[in-house]
């Protein structure tokens, strides 16, 4: 088969893929350990890392999945899936942001009312 | 009737004292300034001018400031609120006029409109076009108003209950009108004369007027889709 890459180059790419996947998983695990990542996101990113790892270790996997779905150029399946994945995540973050904005608003309003009530009792005490 | 004058403000140090004085000079109502996270000392100046001050720890948007005012009025047993802008555009002389409409029970929300009687400050050309388009839009969606972006309102307890529970965020006037109308509140406009702001810049620049319009139209359309 005529390929523009030598075998050593292909192994290098594979090694890079595996290394990147492992780094992602390692980073996520470390973030969980330091309480910097919420579990529900952790599961998501660990799953993403696992999929990337499986694809880079076992290279024909992507071809099998792509061909069985009728996709003639396997990398485009990878692009499609990752694009949709990121799209859903960003949409989810928009929902989270909206909910947090609402919560912050309620909190700030509650604090404003409490401060006002505190001012009143302070003022009353000082007048006595 | 026991009215509360609510003044939502953000960084209006140059105007706030004059506005509070103006209101207190016109009517005997209590004045509440809602400071939406100013960093120029607006809250202190308002307090010195004799207003009660609610202060948001961070900027939440004009809608939240107005809502805080409504919630305060409900919590403290006021039975009407007059909403006055903090930049001096609203002549406090019209406060009794707006309240009079409520007292006669002609409406639950009285809106002071620049366009019923065409005098005084009429805003820039771009914004006028936008306001006319919004007028047509608001007619389409059911509220009969000529000045849907006016923030000079008087509300009775019924309207406060509706808008205190949920109040739109960024550009609240048009959306609030719709929301209240759908909840069964009666809206009525009275002519008022507005002045250009005393000092500083409006939160809406001419450049952004087009964008503002689009956002309001979108918000109004979304408001129709919301289930509440």
How many β strands of chain A by DSSP? 0
Instruction: State the helicity of chain A in percent bands.
Output: over 70%
- Helicity range of the residues of chain B? 40-55%
Strand content of chain B: 15-25%
| Main sheet summary of chain B | 7 strands, mixed
**Spans of chain B of 5+ residues with little confidence (pLDDT < 50)?**
none
Order of helices and strands of chain A, N to C? HHHH
Low-confidence runs of at least 5 consecutive residues of chain A: none
Order of helices and strands of chain B: EHEHEHEHEHEHHEH
Overall structural class of chain A, as computed from helix and strand content, comes to: mainly alpha
- What spatial order of strands do you see in the largest sheet of chain B? 3-2-1-4-6-5-7
Note the main sheet of chain A.
Answer: none
Helix count of chain A? Answer: 4
Morphology of chain A:
elongated
Q: In DSSP terms, counting alpha (H) and pi (I) runs of 4 or more, how many helices of chain B?
A: 8
Strand content of chain A: under 5%
The secondary structure category of chain B is: alpha/beta
> How far apart lie the N and C ends of chain B?
30 Å
What's the gyration radius of chain A in Å?
A: 26 Å
């Amino acid at each position: 088969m005529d390929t523009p890459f030598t075998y050593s180059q292909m192994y290098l790419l594979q090694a890079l893929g595996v290394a990147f996947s492992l780094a992602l998983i390692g980073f996520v695990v470390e973030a969980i350990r330091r309480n910097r990542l919420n579990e529900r996101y952790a599961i998501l990113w660990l799953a993403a890392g696992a999929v990337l790892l499986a694809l880079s270790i076992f290279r024909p996997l992507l071809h099998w999945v792509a061909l069985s779905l009728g996709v003639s150029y396997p990398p485009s399946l990878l692009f499609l899936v990752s694009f949709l994945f990121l799209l859903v995540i960003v949409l989810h973050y928009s929902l989270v942001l909206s909910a947090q904005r609402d919560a912050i608003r309620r909190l700030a309003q509650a604090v404003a009312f409490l401060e006002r009530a505190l001012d009143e009792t302070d003022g009353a005490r000082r007048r006595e | 009737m026991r009215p509360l004058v609510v003044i939502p403000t953000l960084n209006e140090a140059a105007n706030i004292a004059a506005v509070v004085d103006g209101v207190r000079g016109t009517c005997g109502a209590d004045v509440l300034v809602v400071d939406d996270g100013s960093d120029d000392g607006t809250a202190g100046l308002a307090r010195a001018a004799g207003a009660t001050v609610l202060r948001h720890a961070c900027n939440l948007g004009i809608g939240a400031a107005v809502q805080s005012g409504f919630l305060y009025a409900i919590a403290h047993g006021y039975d009407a609120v007059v909403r006055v802008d903090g930049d001096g555009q609203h002549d406090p002389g019209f406060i009794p006029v707006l309240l009079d409409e409520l007292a006669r029970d002609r409406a639950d929300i009285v809106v002071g409109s620049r366009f019923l009687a065409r005098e005084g400050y009429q805003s820039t050309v771009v914004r006028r076009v936008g306001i006319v388009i919004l007028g047509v839009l608001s007619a389409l969606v059911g509220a009969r108003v000529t000045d849907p972006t006016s923030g000079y309102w008087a509300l009775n307890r019924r309207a406060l209950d509706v808008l205190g529970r949920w109040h739109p965020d960024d550009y609240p006037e048009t959306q609030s009108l719709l929301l209240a109308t759908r909840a069964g509140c009666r809206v009525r406009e009275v002519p008022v004369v507005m002045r250009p702001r005393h000092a500083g810049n409006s939160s809406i620049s001419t450049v952004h007027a087009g964008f503002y319009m689009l956002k309001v139209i979108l918000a109004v359309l979304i408001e129709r889709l919301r289930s509440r």
